[in-house]
Amino acid sequence: MRSFGTVVVLVALASQSVLAQAPDSSRHDKTFLTRRDLGLAAIAVGATALLSHYDVDIARASRDSQYQRSGLTSFSQHVSKVNETTLTAAGIIFYGVGRLTKAATLTDVALHATESVVLASVVSQVIRGPLGRARPYVTNDTDQYNFSFGGGFRRGDAGFRRRAFPSIHTSSGVAVATVLSMELHRRHPTATPFVAPVLFAAGVLPGLVRIQLNQHWASDVAAGAFMGAFAGYKVVSYSHDHPNNWFDRTLLRVSVSASETGGMNVGFSPF
C-alpha cells in the first residue's frame, strides 16, 4: 500500500541521516541540545505537516478489507504490544544481566537504549498531552486536524482518545533501533548497512500496525519516528562524547555480585 510505503521511506531517510552523522567523531557537542537540533526539528515539523495532508486518505486506505483480515489484525495486535513499557523493561533486564555477567558492551548498550526510550516517551507525552489530537477512530477517519488543548490530560478513555500525536509506540521502537545501529557502527561499521535497515524496519513496525488498528494517523508515526531517532542519536553521541556524564558515571559503574547468603550485593561508584 502506498500509504505505508510513504511512512517507511520517511523513516528510512531519517535513519540514514542519523547513521550518516554517527561516524563523525571529530565533532563533539558541548551541550546535549544545540542550535543544529532546532533546524532538524523544524525540518521534521515541516515534513510531518506535509504528510498530515494525506492522513485521511491513508487512514481510509488502511481500513480496506484486504488490510483488515483477521490474521493481519491479530498480527498487528501482537506487534502493538511492543511499546515503551515492554522496551524499557527489556532494557532494564539486559542492563541487569550485563552487570551480573560483567559484560561492559551489553551494559553500555542496554543503558543507552533504556535512556533513549525514556527520553523519547517523556518528550512525546509532554507534546501530546497539551495538543489533544484525536485518534482516527474518534473522528471516523474524517478529521486529522481535530485538536483539543489539554485533551490528552483527561482521565481514562477520554484522555487516551486524544493522545494520538506523536506515536510513542514508534518513538520507542525507533529509539532502540537508533541506539543499536549506532552502537553497532562504533564496533562493527562494516555490518551497519546490512543490520541497520532490519533494526529500523523492526523499530517502526509497532507504529505502522497502529495505523492498521486505526489508533494513529500516518503523521503521528512519522513524528514518532523522528522523536525516536533524535532521542537515540542524542543519547549515544552525548554519552560517548562525555563518558563522565552523571548517568554513565553512576550506572555504568554499578557493581552487582552474589552474596554469601544467596542474595545480591549492589554497589555504586559514582567517582
Quick rundown:
This protein is mainly alpha-helical.
Explain what you see:
This protein has 271 residues and is mainly α. A two-stranded antiparallel ribbon has the order 1-2. The protein has a single domain, classed as Up-down Bundle (Vanadium-containing Chloroperoxidase, domain 1). The chain starts with a helix and ends with a strand. Mean pLDDT is 84; it is low at 6-26, 255-259 and 263-271. 66% of the residues lie in helices and 3% in strands. The chain has eleven helices and two strands, in the order αααααααααααββ.
Q: What gyration radius follows from the Cα positions, in whole Å?
A: 20 Å
Shape: globular
- The percent range for helix content is 55-70%
| Category by helix and strand content | mainly alpha
Regions with little confidence, pLDDT below 50 for 5+ residues = 6-26, 255-259, 263-271
In the CATH hierarchy, the architecture is: Up-down Bundle
CATH domain topology? Vanadium-containing Chloroperoxidase, domain 1
| Series of H and E elements | HHHHHHHHHHHEE
Mean pLDDT: 84
Task: Write out the strand line-up for the largest beta sheet, numbering strands in chain order.
Answer: 1-2
> What distance separates the N and C termini?
54 Å
Descriptive labels:
271 residues; mainly alpha; Vanadium-containing Chloroperoxidase, domain 1; two-stranded antiparallel ribbon; 11 helices; 3% strand; disordered C terminus
